[in-house]
Amino acid sequence: MIRINLSTPALLQRLRVRRCKERKKYPLNYPESRMYYRYGITIAEKNSIFEKQGKVCAICKSPDPKSKVGWHTDHDHATNVVRGILCHACNTALGQMQENIEVLQSMIAYLQNHAVEQRAPDKEAT
Hints:
Largest sheet: 2 strands, antiparallel
Radius of gyration: 21 Å
Strand content: 5-15%
Helix content: 55-70%
Shape: extended
Number of helices: 5
């Protein structure tokens, strides 16, 4: 099997030049076409999803995107269906856990068990 290094300086420069040309050729449509190409939705549809969730993160309900780049469009990597709009922290957490429901449930159980242990001494003191 032949491996191609996609991070060579020459390739990265060609990609930058291509993106720059695309932006110049389609200045108003570039963000729209990028959103549609990546997720199959328009920016208007993304804004509608964000409005329906109250203009907050779909997971933590924070009104702050917690990032300079703004809100993240969360999607199922297997089907590419958009699930919601997330803040940077929640999007990163999902990515780090590889969207594994069992691991996320285990994390919740872990936090709940330790929360009980931490509260137990306080109850005995009173």
